[in-house]
Amino acid sequence: MIKPLPVDIRLMQLTTQVLWGVLALLALAGTAIFVSRHAAFAIRGIAVSGDVSHNNALTLRANVAPHLHGTFFTLDLGRARATFEAVPWVRQAVVRREFPNRLRVQLQEHRAVAFWGPDGESRLVNSFGEVFEANVGEVEHDGLPRLQGPDGQSAQVWDAFQALQPLFEPMDLTLEQLELNGRGSWRARLDTGAVMELGAGSLPEVQARTQVFLKTLTQVSARYGRKPEALETADLRHQDGYALRMRGVTTLAQVGPKK
User: Fold this and answer.
1) Cβ 223 vs Cβ 234: under 8 Å
2) Cβ contact 211:171 at 8 Å
3) Strand duo 102-109 + 45-50: pairing
4) CA–CA distance, 67 with 236 (Å, rounded to integer)
5) What is the pLDDT of residue 165?
6) How far apart are CA 36 and CA 72, in angstroms?
7) pTM of the model
8) Do 172 and 229 form a contact (C-beta atoms < 8 A)?
């Protein structure tokens, strides 16, 4: 019968095994750190694809590369993405590693659809209703509308613009500016210079009031020998009608039953 080893010897053996295990782990960790930081895995190339209308791929790589720190294994992809998205006109960047030492970046640029803020401000609104800053001299389309509203409401104002603009097109009128004030009331300006107070309420309510106004505008303007583009101001906030001013004529038109 084999006698069990003394407790102290068993403890020594266990301690030895633990120490060897720790040393092995340290060796593996050291090797991993050495490999991860080895020059062979330093980022050597960046492949850029997607939207590059406002950013040349070569200059983009040249401007971003100095701000990327780490190797293929240690590079923080979140920070890399933020670095690309800090470039003007870049809305979103998807950054992926490509073994052994490259990055592949898919870009989505902002598509400017309107200016944002009071006259003179150069901030822009993209097709998602997001406000961004860029060189307005690089805007591809002339005659962008100007939108204005409280902070954080750009998407709502852009949605309203898209809903209201088609209502004016049959009359060859263009919605040039749209503003939502802090009280929730809408004001529009046409390309003819006419200013319209559209009132408050939900978007369907504002659309309905605008449609009623436009359906009768031609008749009212013809009655006074004017064309719709002669409109100077219109106030749609009245419950049973609207007030308007045309060049040389001021009147109140009834569009609903009197109480």
Assistant:
1) no
2) no
3) parallel
4) 54
5) 97
6) 7
7) 0.79
8) yes
Kindly state the tokens that stand for 20: 């060897």
SS3 per-residue string spanning the chain: CCCCCCHHHHHHHHHHHHHHHHHHHHHHHHHHHHHHCCHHHECCEEEEEECCCCCCHHHHHHHHHHHCCCECCCCCHHHHHHHHHCCCCEEEEEEEEECCCEEEEEEEECCEEEEECCCCCCEEEECCCCEECCCHHHCCCCCCCEEECCCCCHHHHHHHHHHHHHHHHHHCCCEEEEEECCCCCEEEEECCCCEEEEECCCHHHHHHHHHHHHHHHHHHHHHCCCCHHHEEEEECCCCCEEEEEECCEEEEEECCCCC
CATH assignment of the domain containing 52: 3.10.20.310
Residues 190-210 have pLDDT tens digits of 999 999 999 999 999 999 999
Question: Average pLDDT, whole number, for the chain?
Answer: 87
The verdict on residue 1 lying in a domain is: no
Assess whether 213 and 160 both reside in one domain: yes
Task: State the burial class of residue 81 (Cβ atoms within 10 Å of its Cβ: 0-12, 13-18, 19+).
Answer: middle
Which residues constitute the domain of residue 71? 42-109
